[in-house]
Every structure is written in structure tokens, then in C-alpha cells.
Amino acid sequence: MKHNASSHPTTLAISRRKALLAATLMAIAGGSALAQSTPWPAKTIRMVVPYTPGGGTDAVARLISERVGTANHWTLVVDNKPGAGGNIGLDAVAKAAPDGHTFGMGQTANLAINPALLPSMPFNPRTDLLPVALVAAQPVVLVVPADSPWKSIQDLIKAAKAEPGNIKQGLASTGTVGHLAGEMLSFKAGIKVLNIPYKGAAPAVTDLLGKQTHYMFGTPQAVYPLLKGKRLRALAVSSAKRLSILPEVPTVAESGFPGFEAVDWKLIVAPKGTNAEIAKKLNAAVNKALQDPAVLKQLQEEGSTPMGGSMQDALNYLQKEQSSWATLIRDAKIQLE
Fold this sequence. Notes:
- The protein is α/β, with parallel strands linked by helices.
- The chain contains eleven helices and eleven strands.
- It has helices spanning about 10-35, 55-70, 85-95, 110-115, 155-160, 175-190, 200-210, 220-230, 275-290, 295-300, 310-330; strands spanning about 45-50, 75-80, 100-105, 130-140, 140-145, 170, 195, 215-220, 230-235, 265-270, 305.
- The strands form two sheets. The chain has a six-stranded mixed β-sheet, sandwiched between helices. Strands 7-6-8-5-9 form a five-stranded mixed β-sheet.
- β1, α2 and β2 (about 75-80) form a beta-alpha-beta unit.
- The longest helix is centred in the N-terminal third of the chain and has 28 residues, at about 10-35.
């Protein structure tokens, strides 16, 4: 007499064990799914600022973090990690766990200029970071001492052509938007000037007032009080449109260089691999914060323009800026001093 193998006691026991194992695995998978759907944020959100406290990037980061946190009942803390032109802080963001609890306030220098200007970078802005939200853009202002004979950019260019290499441009630091705006003007105007780099805006402005240099491109925070006090004169701003706080000052573009634009924009980034839905939530929160009248007023008073837009807008803008600055650095043969 032959027995059917499927009815053998041993075979039945094995089948039951397989069924039990399958059920257990399904339960574990279900638990994992539940764990993954835990409401975000599950803890404090860290906003890394790659510069020292008190600067322009820090001020914008704190303003936006406070508004976003308050409106959404999230806890956001600003973590300052300065050094290497902003590269140290953003490198920490790039290497952080992509769990939706670490973001960074990147800007033009460390996301678009440094990659083309420096021989090596600790991270790759194109592949190691996820653009989340555009925040604001701020131009630099071309200033000279109040008693300078120059009343326009054309006066500066005429002097530089008369004395090639003798006109001195002060730089708050190398690799900044102020530095690159000056290089862009020299390239487009066909002039050669002597760059004098400093370790910050304060000493650069001090030497400009002391006639150790002839001109500089400074941030509104650094030069606006001295413009109001009539110790400096503004010749132009580097944005596409005039600044509301300096309505009488023309843009570089309308001073003979159409298309000229050099702005210090702020862009929130996250580690690559951060959940897209989480990033979209922060993007929406930032866009809402940028509509707050108090936020708009503070940005306007410091010479900034709110940006905003979708995550795709942020990616498109970043890629355009990276390409634009890389082209200028290559064509003008710009190198660090």
C-alpha cells in the first residue's frame, strides 16, 4: 500500500512550521511599516548654519527656523558650524543620517562657487545634498569712500584702464559673492585691478574708509549704516533689480552691463536620501513662513528678497547657478589669491 507524501505526519509538521514562519515575517513587516510611518518630526530638527553666529546667513536661518517651528509646533535648533568658507558645516549635513532631522542653510559660495573655485571639496553639492527650499537672495553693493571722485561705475572703469593693476579692490574674503562680483565686473569691463583680501567685512570696510583700498563689493549689513551716515557712497547694486532700501542706486546691469547679476542666495538642503515627503513638508512650511509680514519686513530691512518655490524650483535654480559661476570662473581664469 502506498502513502500520499502530503499526508505524512512529518510533511504536515513542516508545512505548519512554514506557515507559522510566514505569518511571523508578515507581522514583523507590518510592525516595520508602522515604525516607518511614525509621525515626523520624532525629535528636534537641527538646522546647521556653516557660519558664525551674528552673520547674515545665521540671521536668516534663525528667523526662518523660529517661524517654521512656531507655526508647526516643531522644535528647531540652529547649530553653527563655521569654517572653510562654509564647507565644514555643509559637509556635516552631507554626512548626517538622512532621517529628516538634519538640514543645512547653504548659500551661493558653498553650493555654487566653491565647487568650481576650489581644487577639492569634502562633499559634492550635486550628489550629496538634496535641495529643499529657496529662502532669500541678497545682492552686494559696490561702494567707495564718500569723498571719492568716482560717481559711477564708468568712473571706476576709466580710472582702472588709466592705471592697470594699481586700483585696489577690497575683499571681505575670497570665494564670496563680493569677491566674484568684483571679478565678474573686471572680466566684463576688461580691466585689471589689485585684489586685497581680508578676514571679514569689518577690516575691509575700515581700510576702505582709510583709503588703503579704492572700492569693494560689500553686503548691505556691512555698508548700509555707513551709507546712511554718508561715510561711503554706493555706485551700484549687483541684483537684477534695484534695492528697496537703496532705491536711488542703479544696478550694475543698468550701468552698462546688461544681464549682470551676483546675489548671495540662501538654500535649505538635506542629506541625500532624506525622505521626499518629509522634505516637501519643510518646503511647504518655509514657503508659508516667507509670506509672514514680519519675516518679509525683516528681510527687506536687511536688503534681501524672499524667494520660495517648490523643491523642483530649488533644484533648477541651484543647477543654473552652479553652471553660471563655473563658466565665469573658467572664462575669467579666476583663482584664489
